Amino acid sequence: RTLEGDLRRAITANEFVLLFQPRCDARTLELLGVEALIRWDHPQLGRLVPDDFVPLAEKSGLVIPLGEWVLRKACDTISRLPALNVSVNVSVVQFRGGELVATVASALKATDLPAHRLELEITESVLIENTEKALDILARLKDLGVRLSMDDFGTGYSSLGYLRTFPFDALKIDRRFVGDLDHSKGALAIVQAILGLGRALGLQVVAEGVETQSQLEHLKADCCDEVQGFYLGRPMTEEALHAFIAERQ
Ligand code: G
Ligand code: G
Ligand code: MN
Ligand code: NA
After folding, report:
1. Model ipTM?
2. DSSP letter assigned to residue 175
3. Is 63 exposed, middle or buried (0-12, 13-18, 19+ CB in 10 A)?
4. Which of 20, 53, 57, 168 has its CA 20 to 30 A from that of 201?
């Protein structure tokens, strides 16, 4: 048996789980949306995180059907929760196949989720690989009405130019910078610079990996729009998300 064989069977065997992590208004802490995060409950190996199997899914092409499942599941779950937005991570491999736009359109149609409530999180690798093609796909995704965000912002090397060239609505500050906010002047300077850049370009800025009150205070002081991280809530099941929402009402 191989992990790839297991992966091939896992979709039909229903072994994947989609968790949802809160994204909150930085000032009011109101719940605005969730990021969908996949897990694999492997029958022998237990619960696997994306680092354990997404690279293999990308190499084998299985990330295409897997990505379809994630989009459908995320849209379906959130369509039943009034006013909540959902963001979904999209792999560079999903951009190669050429079916991404159709896959997103059919997930929205099948679940009746208004397009503006779906955000696709994209990493820089998508833009580096084939800039022309990526630009075309992103433009067609924007035409559908979905939001686009640049994920892991600050960790790449040419992100600044991309922000101008590509039709992003938001950028997500990588949790490495947020995690160092309390004890590193350098990290604070970088976060402040990203927030200033986002503001100047009219982009919404989301900070990831917020774990402490004091990190939150730094981010609020510099007008960060949204915060995500263990301080606000861990990735949770759909049932736990319902309880999380009920508790806040
Ligand atoms: O889930 P975790 O909290 O461990 O996320 C680790 C990484 O896995 C994140 O950077 C995220 O971008 C990626 N990831 C999580 N869920 C998905 C998914 O559904 N599809 C893809 N392609 N990547 C995902
Ligand atoms: O898409 P991305 O790579 O950014 O995925 C988010 C990842 O960060 C997921 O693996 C998620 O479980 C993880 N994560 C979310 N909040 C926190 C946090 O507050 N601290 C840490 N260390 N990891 C977090
Ligand atoms: Mn992400
Ligand atoms: Na990220």
Report:
1. 0.95
2. H
3. buried
4. 20
**Nearest atom in ligand 1 to 58's CA:** 22
Residue 130, CB half-sphere, CA atoms under 13 Å: how many?
12
Going from the Cα of 123 to the center of ligand 1, the distance in angstroms, rounded, reads: 11
- Residue minimizing CA distance to atom 9 of ligand 2: 37
CA distance 30 to 25: 5
pTM: 0.96
209 lines ligand 2 (CB under 6 A): yes
- Closest residue by CA, ligand 1 atom 16: 37
pLDDT tens sequence for the chain (249 residues): 899 999 999 988 999 999 999 999 999 999 999 999 999 999 999 999 999 999 999 999 999 999 999 999 999 999 999 899 999 999 999 988 889 999 999 999 999 999 999 999 999 888 888 888 899 999 999 999 999 999 999 887 766 888 888 899 999 999 999 999 999 999 999 999 999 999 999 999 999 999 999 999 999 999 999 999 999 999 999 999 999 999 988
Q: Which ligand is nearest to the CA of 35?
A: 3
Q: What domains can be seen in the chain, in order of their start residue?
A: 3-248 (3.20.20.450)
